[in-house]
Task: inverse folding
């Protein structure tokens, strides 16, 4: 096996930032061969001095059992070092399983497709999304890794891992008691996981207290509305904004404090316009109807200009019209500000309509994830939802 | 009814510039009849008012001037006391005559106000001990005996019990005091005497309100003192006696102050109080002619006095109130002799108190011989008496067991002058020259 | 008729963010201030000034302090009187021990001292909530009382442990008449009330209320709950400390630690519950109610029951006081400030409520 | 350190703690069933004891007076439910708390207005005299009080376990909504629980009254119960007992040993705040109290 064999199997498509690696009908007989191939790849990429999307063709590829570990390690290294995202075409059944289980463990997306065309299309989508949210990598923006959460003896979450890409709408679904809200609580720092880690933008933030998580750029709404009931709509949203203020200038309300308050007020008014809640500005939120309260809560969360917005059943208890409004707001937020959204929702219709990615939990464990279409078709998910014993 | 309340409110709340009624002398009563100290308040003000009532009914007032009074409930609280003071100070044709709030705290709060308003305050057996120095406190009169005088008399009493003051050396005394400003007040005087006579004194605090004294009495038992001085207040007193019984300490060796020496302080302790000794500047009992007169003129033939419970007439607080009445009335008489038989102003009353002189003969006339001690107040000395009797509880009533025991002014007076001088310095006051008045 | 919002349009956020956005409210407040500063001193006699208005203002200030903690931030405290005591004794010692200490500075430092102590005793609020916290603040109440009684230094070794307030002197002027003391108190209280109102309507106050209404949501909104609570403890104790110092200097003249017992804490708590939790106005309405009611009862009792013994009338006063509190809370649990607000809303619609 | 003395302090403290528990139990009963922190418990103790002692002084026999006061406390319980609690359903806890302070003023005024301000001795036939066990003297009154407390807890236990009303009480304490849905009359239960607290107040009043005399200061017993409550939790009778024992023992030991060891004069009077500090320190470690249930915060 010489370098030219390898070179022939690698091609760069500059226009779509993609490196195509063709493993099809290639046989890795041992670890040394894996190393040789990947050394070559590393070398080639290093010469380009940039990151690439990977399009990997697996059809008929054979990997000797003793080479597996090596193959996995090198692949991972490549991804981390210069990958923007990977799509995989037609691996064998065994490879497919291996990739899936690893993806599950290490929270990356398997992105397995049956034809090269499908893979190319998905790649296009990935690139488009990245363009929307600007620079950066399509690597996990938020990564939840092997989260366990116990209350006394009760296991609320067991080893859940998934990742959320920047600029995407990710939904967490599952039957009642599946651990969805617990998951959101863990992400927002309100519960500390018993085990596991959470990475955000590449940094480990598992142990930050909730208010610091919020300051990193997380905001959320609650399943049972958690507004500040004694305050007006305006004050609720203002409280959601983070700006410098101090006691003494606030008490005097002169100069800087006054200017800052007015500036913030103007910002908040824009949100109020966006969510169409002008009429209830000065009303105490405790007396508002449910649907409006949900909207105010969204406004308060948005006021912080979050990077990641966590929505816990934003449409629960709403009628169809209200749901449509809310879905529109969620999409608008995602569109206009590129905000990454993690969403818990019961209404499958809504979930399928607006999500890029869906994670399914049941009994505290992840049972499936993928695109809405994939999840919908997954027999495990169907079973969980229909409650058939397995 | 409504209009009546409204009128009363208006009258009380707005300046009470009463119509000129020349033959009346108004005496404000800052009483307290609810709360933890109500037992003392009802007794004291009962006796005070009943004595004034006696003078009105029997003599038609003093020198033809009728005595009038109005009560104002202070609940033994400083701020309520100040409000009552302000409300009543201008009542009556010539304003309030004299205040006697029966509360150290209220007394403190009134000192400056009363001085500015030129109305005397009598704090008989409470209040600021250093106000005995009349040069610094012209309007304040801690008449009869102050805390410090009493305390020296108590050590003298203990000395006689031990067989002479020289026998005190090496003795152990525990000062069990209420955890308040009042309770702490005698600590320096006791320490001074301990140095002088060579006994040791241990101060043990009982936190307010003092309804649990387990640990204090266990400590006392382990110290094994020869005497325990009980400087208690309210519920602390019976609890102390009960606790003494519990650890087996003899009540004959406990000497209380006069705030620990009323019937209310021993009755609740029942059997446990038997043999307990307390200081008093007057005895209990109804045998004194003045008390008999009250019963005859105020209560007899279905008439109603101030006391709800007639059984309490002649008890400590009632008799103390009577003495307060006598002092007030005698001061009015003294002032009337100088200024004429008319409504006196506070300033004139002050002169009356400062020149008050009650000798044995006068006590006989008043029917108060043995009830109170002879007194002579002066500009220099606003205490005027200073002697104490000791009485012992026999399970049913107090029995006087000593004659008047005078205080040790060689210890007390310098302390009073030092303390008063410090007050004068803090307030930048000039000392009054007593030669001139 | 006169209380109409019609025709009042806000053309800027600045206008809308004013302290009293409604014109009539502005006029009313200005009217009250003019009346308090100019008319009252002329009209009222010494009794009203010295025995009613001054304690009313001071207790109103203390109630405002407690309202910041309990009403705005939702932290129940029974240690108010303790913090007042700290203020009183601190002011006394600052003036006594620092030569030439100006009165207002001493007052400010007294507040700061109380604030520090308040933060110290507020620390448990990080973990303890509700009634557990309330009872825990009793530790502050009793501990402070004990320390001030136990250590003679605080009262300059006065044998009775009583501090006698020095004369109030500002820029050579001596505040020794009821009128001057009233005006001084009024000025300080008005300034602090304004500051409280400002804090309450800016981000500081929003954080307080957020912690009160839903502390968990506040935390995930990015509010540092611990800091917010401690700030509330500090500001609240500052107000109580200043109130305590004024209590000694402008009202009683001489105080002992026992002037600041648990009863006083309850009294102030009553003021905010009856006046209205979480409003500046409520603190003062409540103070007026609690200060005036017993006095009015006392005066009325003598007129109502002329033949009845004073023993009984005094107890009747207490019974009535208790009963009125129960009655009042049952009828309007949200306090006088709510009644005031309802009254205003009615007035706004009057005479055509629909 | 003298071991005998130490043991006497310890035992005395434990027994004193029982006296605190007696008052605390009254708080617990009401808080458990209706969520009201009843500050009038001290006033109820005073009211019950003063009424009892005034009746006996007027010649009523012991049992009759006891029965009459008990009946009065039951009437009071029902009256409070009807007049005070019912209009205030669903109000914030703090409002209810203040209402009970108003109630305390009311009861204090009524008690002293009707029976007068005089203090009374109360003899219940047990002298507060010591007897010696292995060189340690123990008060027979304290033992009697502890026995009574045990009996009281037993009676309450039987009442809660065996009677229909008692079971209803427990159901309400566990879950108001659920209790309502199975048809338990919440109001009736509240009235009963206030009456039961009245009964506890009577027992506490008699024991405290025998020691300190029956007087206004009985209302202060409530203050002694507060640290016990923080330590033991507001909702557990067992907690009130154990809390009382711990508070009683540690405050006495602290008063005797800590004061002197930190260089203060002995007898420093730290008893008033020490229990609160102790309870506070404890709460910092375990915010739900000794026997309170740990709450998982949900949102």
Result:
């Amino acid at each position: 096996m010489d370098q030219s064999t390898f070179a022939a199997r690698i091609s760069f498509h500059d226009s779509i930032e993609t490196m195509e690696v063709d493993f099809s009908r290639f046989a890795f007989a041992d670890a040394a061969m894996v190393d040789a191939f990947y050394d070559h790849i590393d070398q080639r990429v290093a010469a380009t001095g940039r990151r690439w999307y990977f399009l990997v063709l697996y059809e008929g590829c054979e990997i000797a059992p003793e080479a597996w570990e090596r193959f996995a390690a090198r692949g991972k290294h490549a991804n981390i070092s210069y990958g923007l995202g990977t799509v995989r075409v037609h691996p064998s059944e065994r490879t497919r399983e291996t990739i899936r289980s690893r993806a599950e463990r290490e929270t990356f997306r398997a992105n397995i497709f049956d034809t090269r065309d499908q893979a190319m299309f998905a790649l296009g989508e990935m690139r488009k999304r990245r363009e929307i949210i600007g620079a950066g990598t399509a690597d996990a923006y938020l990564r939840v890794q092997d989260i366990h959460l116990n209350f006394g003896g009760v296991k609320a979450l067991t080893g859940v891992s998934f990742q959320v890409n920047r600029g995407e709408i990710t939904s967490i679904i599952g039957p009642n008691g599946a651990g969805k809200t617990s998951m959101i609580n863990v992400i927002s720092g309100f519960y500390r996981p018993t085990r596991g880690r959470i990475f955000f933008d590449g940094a480990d933030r598992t142990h930050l207290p909730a208010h610091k998580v919020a300051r990193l750029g997380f905001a959320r709404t609650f399943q049972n509305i958690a507004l500040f009931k004694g305050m007006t709509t305006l004050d609720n949203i203002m409280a959601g904004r983070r700006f410098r203020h101090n006691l003494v200038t606030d008490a005097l309300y002169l100069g800087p404090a006054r200017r800052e308050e007015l500036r913030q007020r103007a910002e908040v008014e824009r949100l109020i316009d966006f969510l169409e809640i002008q009429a209830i500005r000065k009303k105490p939120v405790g007396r508002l109807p449910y649907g409006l309260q949900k909207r105010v809560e969204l406004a308060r969360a948005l006021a912080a200009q979050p990077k990641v917005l966590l929505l816990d059943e934003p449409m629960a208890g709403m009628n169809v019209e209200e749901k449509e409004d809310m879905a529109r707001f969620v999409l608008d937020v995602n569109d206009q500000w590129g905000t990454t959204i993690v969403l818990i929702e019961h209404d499958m219709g809504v979930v399928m309509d607006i999500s890029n990615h869906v994670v399914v939990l049941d009994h505290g464990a992840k049972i499936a994830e993928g695109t809405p279409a994939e999840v919908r078709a997954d027999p495990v998910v169907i079973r969980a939802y229909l409650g058939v014993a397995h | 009814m409504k209009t009546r309340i409204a009128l009363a409110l208006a009258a009380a709340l707005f300046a009470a510039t009463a119509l000129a009624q020349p033959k009346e002398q108004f005496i404000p009563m800052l009483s307290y009849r609810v709360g933890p100290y109500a037992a003392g308040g009802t007794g004291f003000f009962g006796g005070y008012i009943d004595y004034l009532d006696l003078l009105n009914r029997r003599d038609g007032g003093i020198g033809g001037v009728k005595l009038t009074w109005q009560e104002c409930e202070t609940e033994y609280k400083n701020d309520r006391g100040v409000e009552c003071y302000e409300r009543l100070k201008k009542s009556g044709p010539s304003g309030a005559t004299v205040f006697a709030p029966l509360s150290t705290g209220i007394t403190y709060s009134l000192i400056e106000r009363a001085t500015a308003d030129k109305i005397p305050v009598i704090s008989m057996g409470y209040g600021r001990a250093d106000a005995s120095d009349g040069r610094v406190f012209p309007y304040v009169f801690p008449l009869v005996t102050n805390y410090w005088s009493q305390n020296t008399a108590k050590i003298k009493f203990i000395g006689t019990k031990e067989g002479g003051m020289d026998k005190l050396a090496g003795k152990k005394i525990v000062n069990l005091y209420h955890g308040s400003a009042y309770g702490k007040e005698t600590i320096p005087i006791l320490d001074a005497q301990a140095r002088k006579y060579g006994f040791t004194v241990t101060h043990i605090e009982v936190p307010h309100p003092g309804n649990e004294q387990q640990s204090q009495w266990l400590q006392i038992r382990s110290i094994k003192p020869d005497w325990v001085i009980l400087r208690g207040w309210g519920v602390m007193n019976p609890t102390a006696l009960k606790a003494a019984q519990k650890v087996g300490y003899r009540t004959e060796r406990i000497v209380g102050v006069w705030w620990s020496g009323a019937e209310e302080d021993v009755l609740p302790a029942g059997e446990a109080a038997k043999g307990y000794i307390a200081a008093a500047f007057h005895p209990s009992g109804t045998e004194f002619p003045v008390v008999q007169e009250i019963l005859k003129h105020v209560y007899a033939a279905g008439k109603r006095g101030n006391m709800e419970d007639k059984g309490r007439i002649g008890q400590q607080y009632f008799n103390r109130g009577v003495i307060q009445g006598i002092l007030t009335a005698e001061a009015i008489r003294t002032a009337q002799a100088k200024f004429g038989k008319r409504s006196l102003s506070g300033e004139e009353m002050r002169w009356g108190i400062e020149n008050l002189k009650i000798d044995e003969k006068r006590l006989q006339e008043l029917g108060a011989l043995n009830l109170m001690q002879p007194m002579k107040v002066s500009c220099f000395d606003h205490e005027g008496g200073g002697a104490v009797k000791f009485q012992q509880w026999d399970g049913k009533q107090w029995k006087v067991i000593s004659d008047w025991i005078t205080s040790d002014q060689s210890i007390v007076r310098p302390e009073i002058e030092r303390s008063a001088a410090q007050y004068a310095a803090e307030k930048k006051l000039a000392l009054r020259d007593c030669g001139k008045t | 008729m006169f209380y109409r919002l019609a025709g009042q349009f806000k053309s800027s956020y600045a206008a809308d963010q004013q302290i009293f956005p409604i014109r009539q409210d502005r006029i009313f407040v200005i009217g009250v201030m003019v009346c308090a500063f100019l008319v009252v001193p002329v009209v009222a006699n010494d009794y009203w000034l010295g025995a009613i208005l001054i304690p009313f203002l001071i207790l109103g200030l203390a109630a405002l302090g407690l309202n910041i903690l309990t009403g705005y931030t939702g932290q129940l405290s029974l240690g108010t009187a303790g913090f007042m005591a700290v203020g009183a004794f601190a002011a006394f010692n600052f003036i006594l021990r620092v030569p030439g200490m100006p009165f207002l500075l001493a007052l400010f430092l007294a507040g700061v001292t109380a604030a520090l102590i308040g933060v110290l005793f507020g620390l448990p609020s990080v973990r303890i909530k509700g009634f557990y916290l309330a009872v825990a603040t009793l530790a502050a109440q009793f501990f402070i009382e004990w320390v001030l009684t136990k250590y003679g230094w605080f009262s300059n070794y006065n044998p009775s442990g009583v501090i006698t307030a020095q004369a109030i002197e500002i820029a050579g002027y001596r505040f020794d008449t009821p009128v001057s003391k009233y005006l001084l108190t009024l000025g300080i209280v008005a300034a602090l009330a304004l500051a409280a109102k400002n804090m309450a309507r800016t981000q500081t106050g929003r954080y307080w209320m957020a912690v009160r209404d839903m502390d968990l949501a506040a935390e995930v909104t990015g509010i540092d709950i611990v800091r917010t609570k401690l700030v509330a403890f500090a500001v609240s104790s500052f107000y109580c400390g200043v109130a305590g110092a004024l209590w000694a200097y402008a009202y009683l003249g001489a105080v002992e630690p026992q002037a600041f017992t648990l009863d006083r804490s309850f009294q102030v708590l009553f003021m905010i519950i009856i006046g209205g939790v979480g409003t500046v106005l409520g603190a003062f309405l409540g103070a007026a109610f609690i200060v005036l009611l017993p006095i009015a009862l006392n005066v009325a009792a003598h007129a109502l029951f002329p033949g009845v013994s004073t023993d009984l009338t005094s107890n009747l006063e207490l019974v009535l006081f208790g009963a009125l509190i129960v009655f009042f809370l049952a009828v309007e649990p949200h306090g006088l400030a709510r009644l005031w607000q309802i009254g205003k809303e009615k007035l706004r619609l009057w005479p055509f409520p629909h | 350190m003298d071991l005998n003395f130490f043991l006497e302090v310890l035992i005395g403290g434990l027994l004193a703690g029982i006296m605190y528990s007696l008052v605390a139990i009254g708080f617990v009963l009401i808080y458990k069933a209706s969520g009201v922190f009843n500050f009038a418990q001290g006033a109820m103790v005073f009211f019950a004891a003063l009424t009892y002692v005034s009746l006996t002084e007027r010649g009523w026999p012991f049992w009759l007076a006891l029965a009459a006061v008990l009946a009065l406390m039951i009437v009071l319980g029902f009256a409070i439910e009807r007049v005070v609690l019912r209009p205030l359903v669903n109000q914030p806890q703090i409002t209810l708390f203040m209402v009970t302070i108003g109630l305390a003023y009311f009861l204090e005024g009524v008690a002293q207005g009707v029976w007068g301000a005089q203090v009374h001795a109360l003899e219940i036939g047990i002298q507060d005299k010591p007897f010696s066990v292995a060189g340690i003297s123990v008060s027979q009154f304290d033992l009697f009080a502890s026995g009574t407390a045990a009996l009281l807890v037993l009676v309450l236990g039987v009442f809660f376990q065996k009677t229909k009303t008692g079971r209803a009480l427990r159901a309400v304490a566990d879950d108001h909504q659920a209790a309502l849905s199975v048809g338990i009359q919440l109001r009736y239960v509240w009235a009963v629980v206030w009456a039961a607290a009245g009964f506890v107040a009577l027992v506490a009043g008699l024991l405290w009254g025998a020691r300190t005399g029956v007087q206004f200061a009985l209302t202060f017993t409530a203050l002694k119960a507060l640290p016990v409550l923080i330590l033991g939790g507001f909702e557990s009778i067992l907690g009130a007992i154990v809390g009382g024992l711990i508070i009683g023992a540690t405050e006495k030991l602290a008063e005797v040993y800590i004061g002197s060891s930190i260089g203060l004069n002995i007898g420093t009077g730290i008893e008033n705040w020490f229990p609160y500090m102790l309870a506070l320190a404890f709460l910092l470690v375990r915010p739900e109290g000794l026997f309170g249930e740990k709450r998982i915060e949900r949102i």
